[in-house]
Amino acid sequence: MTGPLVSVDTLYITLTDELPAFLSQSLLQCKSLPTLPSVALKVLDIARSSSSTLSDYAKAIEHDPALTLRLIALANSAYYTRSAPPVQTCIEAMQRLGINATLPVILGFSLFQEAPNRHQAWQRTITAALVARYLAEQLCPDESGSVFTQALLQDIGILALQAAYPEEADKLYTDTSLSHAEITQAEQCCFGCDHTLVGAWLASKWGMSNHAAMAIRQSHESFLVSDKALLCLRLSGPIADALLSNNPASQLAALLYQLKTVSYADTLQLDEVLYNVQHQTNLIANVMNMNAPIEVDSTALLAEAQQLLFQHTLALGTQLDNQKQALTSLRYPDALQKKEQSLRDAAVAIRHSGLTRRNKKTD
């Protein structure tokens, strides 16, 4: 789907038609399908604008007294209070928590409190969203807010699949040996589509904009895209996966190799992105009372990844040379035999020449 869509309702119908029939029926009948309260949707809508102020957020959040009280309680928690006086209003709480923590908290309370494996899923969601924001601030600062919210929601389809098919989802999403890319392939085999389509459908069902829904739909596609905001979104997941993996340097090296095809990738300050993301993730993890990812030295990690990439490039070059030579021998066996015979003749001639000189010297 590449053309413009007339309305949210039209997009919702189109996405419903794209879902396998059995899956759309199951999702529509699912009574525990994830939902977002109107306040959360309003906050996400505000976040798409780079000119939004804390006052704009506070006015929207205050329509939900329970959510307001939770934010104030978090801002007054021991982690944030220390020697500071307690806050009493929503805007004071946001000033203390910061936007980067406030939005994940709102979404976390709305979606992830009852989700299976919520710590693992929420770690990736937070990390990816922060990566997307810091990348966007470098490449397309005016769109950093919208990229942040899209990254927060790019995997909501997983929550919907968990709700509709808890047993199948439990087997699929608890397998820690699977990468995120392998999970999407497994989803195709199990459900006939992956969670990006389900996520776009769910976002459209919530009444989110066409742009946000389609960004979720395209969030896991190739890095070969001219839209810088979309590139930031597509990079956010793989970078988050690398940071959260047992072997981050190897995964980052593979990512750097793919980025060779992106013309403006050299302008990205990845070491700065990795450092800031880890710092913010630790803060949010404390707020959400979740385990923070293992912290690593971002500069050393990136250097190790670049060294692995260099070694991989050398090995790949050697492999290609060997393959070319083997291919040449298959296509032109006579030419290769003549070349080898020529080399042998030259070696014999050199040896004979050496013997002749030694004999003359002996005479």
What does this structure look like?
By secondary structure, the protein is mainly α. Helix 10 crosses helix 16. The longest helix is centred in the C-terminal third of the chain and has 34 residues. It is globular. The N terminus is likely disordered.
Keywords:
single chain, 363 residues, mainly alpha, disordered N terminus
Helix content class: over 70%
Helix/strand-derived class?
Answer: mainly alpha
Number of strands: 0
* Percentage of residues in DSSP E strands: under 5%
Shape: globular
Whole-number average pLDDT? 81
Rg measurement, Å: 28 Å
What's the helix count?
Answer: 20
> How far is it from the N-terminal to the C-terminal residue, by CA?
88 Å
The biggest beta sheet, please?
Answer: none
Order of helices and strands: HHHHHHHHHHHHHHHHHHHH
**Uncertain residue segments:** 1-7
Describe the structure in brief:
The protein is an all-alpha fold and 363 residues long. The chain has 20 helices and no strands. Helix 10 (144-153) packs across helix 15 (210-217), helix 11 (156-164) packs across helix 14 and helix 16 (228-244) runs antiparallel to helix 17.
List the topology elements:
Elements: H1 8-18, H2 21-29, H3 38-47, H4 54-61, H5 65-75, H6 78-81, H7 90-97, H8 99-112, H9 118-139, H10 144-153, H11 156-164, H12 166-173, H13 180-191, H14 195-206, H15 210-217, H16 228-244, H17 248-259, H18 270-287, H19 298-331, H20 333-362
Helix pairs in contact: 1-14, 3-4, 3-8, 4-7, 5-7, 8-9, 8-18, 9-10, 9-16, 9-18, 10-15, 10-16, 11-12, 11-14, 14-15, 16-17, 17-19, 19-20
